[in-house]
Amino acid sequence: MSKTTAVHEPAAEPTDEELSEQTQVRLAKRARLIESGAEAYPVSLPITTTIPAVRAKYPNLETDATTGETVAVAGRVVHLRNTGKLCFASLQSGDGARIQAMVSLAEVGQESLDGWKDLVDLGDHVFVSGEVISSRRGELSVLVKEWKVASKAVRPLPNLHAELSEETRVRSRYLDLIAREGARQMVRSRSRAVASLRATFDHHGYIEVETPMLQTMHGGASARPFVTHSNAFDTELFLRIAPELFLKRAVVGGIERVFEINRNFRNEGADSTHSPEFAMLEAYQAYGDYNQMADLTQEMIQNAAFDAEGSHEVTWADGTRYDFGGEWDRISMYDSLNAASGWQVTADTTLDELLALAQTVAVEVQQPTHGKLVEELWEHFVKPHLERPTFVMDFPVDTSPLVRAHRSKPGLVEKWDLYVRGFELATGYSELVDPVVQRERFVEQAKLAAAGDLEAMRLDEEFLRALEYGMPPSGGMGMGIDRLLMALTGLGIRETILFPLVK
């Protein structure tokens, strides 16, 4: 890996007083525009093409050349220079492509030129019609014959020549999209990555479904839910923490390869890798197991990297190159912990022994269990040293109540977590389909909940009823879409979510 960094000072934010003064000036221009008989926000305009299409058609127009082609385009004014008889503006389309508009006295006349100078501001959307030419400086331009305001901006744009503050980027993503190519690229990358995921599932015969976001019983993960109330049913409801229990119902019903991409909600902390609202992918395959789901997950992510970024080797925002290619390592949680620590921890190691070991390295766990301590110790010793994408296999049973017991390792379950870039990106299981054992696991979770564990699962009788009709042996996996984009781009979760929840 190679790494380069660049430091940019954030733009100084205008004061409320400055904004108010500029807004009043722009509102006055809006009023003058309407008084003149024109429209400040016309419902439609006779646009014939787009700025990107014009640039694609004339990529290398010679300096001071003409084309004889008249076009009608619209875009946002992001640069404006008004001189005597000739005015210049850079118009930007939604994808960031720009073209120069040249408004001259000779082409539009004095009244139209004066109107341009008086009424058009940075940030306005304008419509221009005229011949495509190249300026004396070789810039692709429209020599304007006619112009109209398409949408009058009554607030000024931020300084487009300086970097926006992180606070502005997150809270006012629309400004980020206007100002920064990186923000626009994130939207495109995310769209391509999600389309790639769907294409991979389609190739393997999966069916996409939608399951309830409002649930009478939260489950499918260990997390604290958001609670709401239905007036129509006069009952407590929960925003879902996972779609798992409904997707498994679909498998019971015969939809043997099923997936969903949608929103989950968890009433927990927010940091660089966690958001209370996030996009989640879950998939289940009848007659599969956790090994097959690991194969599928590697294929999906490699396809997404290639389709979104053009290569299995991606370049993160800080210049680091990260390779998703090749076969990914699969390591045992217990074996890798023992190799890194020099201990001999097994599924039979007692809670007291684990507490003593954890104390020696200052690892603390609230409401400790065998599984929670093993996972925390693994994160302490092993997680920081994972470089390449790595499947961590075979977890303690008490932290995975929806997972099948390991076929050859007593006390463990057939579960993996995929780690990329130092965080958990995806998880996969050989699913627990025995309704008797599943009930026992739920009872154990209920005991934890009674002891004060707010993330413990509830006993879900409706789900158990479905299992009792027979669910085939199955493999399942889940992956955060926002985290996938973090892995592909090297950015934090608030950058990969278009409109993140902020306080």
Helical content (DSSP H or I, runs of 4+): 25-40%
What is the CATH topology classification name of the largest domain? Answer: BirA Bifunctional Protein, domain 2
Number of helical regions: 16
Strand order of the largest sheet: 6-10-11-18-17-16-15-14
The averaged pLDDT comes out at: 93
Unreliable residue stretches: 1-8
EC number: 6.1.1.6
Catalytic activity: tRNA(Lys) + L-lysine + ATP = L-lysyl-tRNA(Lys) + AMP + diphosphate
Enzyme class: ligase
GO cellular component, one term: cytosol
Describe this structure in words.
By secondary structure, the chain is of the alpha+beta class. It has 2 domains: 122 residues, OB fold (Dihydrolipoamide Acetyltransferase, E2P) (Beta Barrel), CATH 2.40.50.140; 259 residues, 2-Layer Sandwich (BirA Bifunctional Protein, domain 2). Helices cover 34% and strands 25% of the residues. The chain is built from 16 helices and 18 strands. The strands form 4 sheets. It has an 8-stranded mixed beta sheet, with helices on both faces. Strands 1-2-3-5-4 form a 5-stranded mixed barrel.
Quick recap:
The chain is an alpha+beta fold and 503 residues long.
Name its key features:
503 residues, alpha+beta, OB fold (Dihydrolipoamide Acetyltransferase, E2P), BirA Bifunctional Protein, domain 2, 2 domains, 5-stranded mixed barrel, 18 strands, disordered N terminus, metal-binding, protein biosynthesis, tRNA binding, NA-bd_OB-fold, ligase
